[in-house]
Amino acid sequence: MDNILDKYKTVAASDVTVWFEAAKASDFPKNGGACIKYKDKQIAVFNFAREGKWYACQNLCPHKMEMVLSRGMIGDDKGIPKVACPLHKKTFSLENGTNLNGDMEAIATYPVKIENDTVYVGFAE
Ligand code: FES
What we know:
By secondary structure, the chain is an all-beta fold. The chain has one domain (2-123): Rieske [2Fe-2S] iron-sulphur domain (Rieske Iron-sulfur Protein, 3-layer Sandwich), CATH 2.102.10. Helix content is 0%, strand content 46%. Strands 2-3-4-10 form a 4-stranded antiparallel β-sheet, with no helix packed on it. It has a 3-stranded antiparallel β-sheet with strand order 1-12-11, with no helix packed on it. Residues 61, 63-64, 66, 85, 87-88, 90 line the site of FE2/S2 (inorganic) cluster. FE2/S2 (inorganic) cluster binds next to loops.
């Protein structure tokens, strides 16, 4: 059951080899998230409009292995942008995936860039 987690590995901006065109920026809710699919991965993309930033992470919450993080509330924990899982409120840093309110393994995060109102998510392969 843990194997599905193996699909998701954090990608550093310097390691990106593929910028996947996800959608128009205007397709994402302000201060909220949406799920995109890249190959066999579900990726949660967040439009952190109040900070003028974008983030991406695995959509899979590692707590109960549910594909739900894109529906989580985003916010900030002492200056760290975070997402709270909508099911049991485990929270994860959107900067490095760390579980901020527990000791779960970090989730995978991915670089995001916006060009010409289009959202790209970076992958390394
Ligand atoms: S499934 Fe996400 S916190 Fe439980």
